[in-house]
Amino acid sequence: MPVCCRRSGRHTAVPAASVHGVIAATRIQQRRLLDLQHVDTRIRQLRYRRAHLPEQKALDDRAELLDRVSAELSATRERLARLEREQRRHERELETVETRYGVETQRKYSGAITSQKELAALDGELSSMEQRRSDLEDTLLEIMEQREETESLVAALTEREVELADEVTAATAVRDKSEVEVDEELVRQVAERETIAADLPAPILKYYDDVRTRKGGLGVAELQGRSCAGCRLELTASEMQEVKQLVDRGLARCEQCGRILVVP
Ligand SMILES: [Zn+2]
Asked: What pLDDT does residue 14 have?
C-alpha cells in the first residue's frame, strides 16, 4: 500500500482508493470500528485464556504429582518384592542349617564316632553352624523390619495415589467446564464480530485489520480528551482541529502510533 498521499501536519489521512485520499467512513462506521475493536480484544483475551487456562495448570500440577507418587509406589512395591524374596531365601537357608545341625547333633550323641579328633571336628562344625544360624536369624529380623516399614509405605502411597487420582478426575472436570465456557463465549464473540463487520465496508475492514495486525492487536483508538488512547500522545489544539475535520470525511490516523483515531 502506498504511503499516505495527503499529509497535513502530524495527522494524516489514511491512504486508500477513496475520496480525497481518505478512506471514507461515516461517524457511525467509525464508532462501529471501536465496537469491532472491543470484540476483537475480547476474542484475543479469550484465545489467550483458552491457551493458558489456570484450570489446566491446576490439573497438570495434580497429574504430575500423581505420576511421581505412582512411580514411587511402583519402586516401593519392587523393593517389597525383593525383600520378600530375600526373606524366603534366608528362611530356606536357615531351615537347611537347622536340619543339618539336628542331623549332626544326633550323630555326635549316637556313639558312632569314637575318634576324639573326629568329635572335635564335629564340634567345630556344630559351633560354626550355630554361628551361621544366629547370623541368619539376625538378618531375617532386619529383613522383616524393613518389610514391615515398606509395607506401611506401600499402603500410604496406595492411599495417596487413590486420593490424587480422584483429584485429577475432579480437576479434569473443572478444566473441561472452563474450556466449554470459554469456547461458548468465543462462539458468541465471533458471531458478534461478524455482525459488526457486516456493517462496515471492505476497505475500512481491510485497513483496520492491517493496522491491528501491525499494532499488537489494537488497530483503532479513541481520542480521549486530547490524547490518543492507543499511545497516550497528546494532540495540540491545531492537531485536534485537524483530526476533527478529517473524521467528518473518513478515517484519521494517529501519526505517533499509526492507529486509526476515532473521535467520540
Ligand atoms: Zn496513537
From this structure: 52
Q: Which amino acid, 68?
A: R
pTM score, whole prediction: 0.72
CA of 233 to the centre of ligand 1 (A): 6
Range of the domain at 26: 19-51+197-262
165 and 201 share a domain?
A: no
In the chain, the number of structural domains is: 2
Cα 20 to ligand 1 centroid, rounded to whole Å: 23
> What is the structure's pLDDT at 199?
94
Rounded Cα distance, 83 and 89, in Å: 10
CA–centroid distance, 132 to ligand 1, in Å, is 91
Assign residue 62 the CATH number of its domain.
1.10.287.1700
H or E element at residue 220? strand 220-224
123 CB neighbour count, 10 Å cutoff: 12
CA of 26 to the centre of ligand 1 (A): 21
Cα→Cα distances 59→63, 176, 179, Å: 6, 10, 13
pLDDT of 255 reads 85
Last residue of a domain, one of 179, 208, 241: 179
Cross-strand bridge partners of residue 46:
none
Residue ranges for the chain with pLDDT beneath 50: 1-10, 15-19
